[in-house]
Automatic annotation (TrEMBL):
Residue span(s) of domain HTH arsR-type: 1-95
PANTHER family named among the record's database cross-references: ARSENICAL RESISTANCE OPERON REPRESSOR ARSR-RELATED (PTHR43132)
The UniProt record lists the keyword DNA-binding: yes
Keywords: DNA-binding, Transcription, Transcription regulation
SUPFAM superfamilies: Winged helix' DNA-binding domain (SSF46785)
Protein name as annotated: Helix-turn-helix domain-containing protein
Entry annotated with the keyword Transmembrane: no
Organism, as annotated: Sphingomonas citri
Length: 110
């Protein structure tokens, strides 16, 4: 990931509703969530939700797939991995004892 892509992803997440959407999608992997259900759960009008989902998709951290008449949204885990690695790959001057707590926090959840 390059700086421009990272900035786009972080900017997409720097808005409350979009951050809530992304966290909802992360919780619902690998099944994903239909667009209408996302709007209902977060109490956001569907047209507004469509705009938010479009921003997240263009930023590379959400993807969609069509199932019959529904569009199912997923957190793009490859995009999340790329963003996370971009943010921490140069961490701590290569001193594993400094970033070990970060890894320990991530390991149980994943």
């Amino acid at each position: 990931m390059d700086s421009e892509s990272a900035i786009a992803a972080l900017a997409a997440l720097a808005q409350g509703t979009r951050l809530d959407v992304f966290r909802l999608l992360i919780r619902n992997e690998p099944t994903g969530v239909a667009a209408g259900e996302i709007a209902r759960q977060l109490d956001v009008p569907q047209n507004t939700m469509s705009a938010h989902l479009g921003i997240l998709a263009r930023a590379g951290i959400v993807r969609s797939e069509r199932h019959s008449r529904s569009i199912i949204y997923h957190a793009d885990l490859d995009g999340l991995r790329a963003l996370t690695l971009f943010l921490v790959k140069d961490c701590c001057a290569g001193s594993p004892e400094l970033y070990a707590p970060l890894l320990a926090e991530l390991t149980p959840c994943c």
